[in-house]
Amino acid sequence: MTSERARASIPPALRILLVLSAAVVVLGGLWLSRGVFGPLAIAAVIVIICYPIGPALVRRGAPRWLGSTAVILLSYVVVAILALLLTWAIAEFVRLVTSLMPEFTRLTLDISAWLEEMGVSAMIGSQLSSIFSTSNIISWVTTLSSSTLSVGMAFFFVLAYVIFMGVDTGRYGRAEQVFGRRIRPVMDRMRSYCAGVRRYFVVNASFGILVAIIDGVALYLLDVPAPIVWAILSFVTNFVPNIGFVLGLVPPAVLALVTNDWVTAVIVVIVYIVANVTLQVLIQPKFVSDAVGLTLTLSFFSVVFWTFVIGPLGAILSIPLTLLVRALVLESDPDARWLRWLSGDDDAVPEAKAAVR
Hints:
This protein is mainly alpha-helical. It contains 17 helices and no strands. It has helices at residues 2-9, 12-32, 34-50, 53-59, 64-99, 101-117, 122-131, 134-173, 175-179, 184-221, 227-237, 244-259, 262-292, 296-310, 313-330, 337-343, 351-356. The longest helix is centred in the middle third of the chain and has 40 residues, at 134-173. It is globular and about 75 Å long.
């Protein structure tokens, strides 16, 4: 009652300003600590995905330490597979680009000459040539190689975080037994959040594997170099809502143009549009929306927002982070049901309305 009176005594405009000010402070802290927060969030998501194996073993009579150990080992297996795939793909990409330097140079010269024949300003042609020049390509590859070192350091952070979180999962599971039913609403919200994260990654991984197989087979039949690398890229970018398809299309299309001809490049674009747009843009968002209860607009905005806040990892973690914010900020406030419903959570409908519907 006291909290309601205090809240009523604060003017709405001032309340909005206080909320926005607190949000800016929190987001600024996340931006400054993104090098630590990103690996921490990745480790948390991996542990959440692997967590069900621990309680399953405990229910079958295994000791709790064995359940926690199983969660850690399964998490390490997932991290190891992802690390090996990405390391191999990056190494193949660097090798491929360095071996195709003459082809890139020839392509830029041909495009520059064609633009001059079409009457385009020589300045535009020279700028285009400089973009795809040998020095620029080498600079991109060098930047990618140096970023691999920072990714390696983040990888060791993830390994450490997984151990700590895996050990603590057994403790979190006993919280309701220790403190009783009064903390059940909080535990139910966290269980619902973890279940939503698992559903999201299961749906995305399923569609990602299907898209990767289709793209990889098509690129192999079209004789585009390194089709497995681009299949892995399709799988990874599938976890970027809405715009992941474009990120996965550009490299193989450019490579098809460099190593084959413009007809092959057009075919690659058509195959990606037919397969990826049909699955990733038309079908998958509906499954993702049903799995996590987020509108398509909020899903797209979350990619842009979290990428700005914590960098490239934010694109992959955008949906889990948005779900976490909703669980912490909106689901604990009964007066915010309408905001939850606007965000895509159909369970936020009042019980009377739900019964009529």
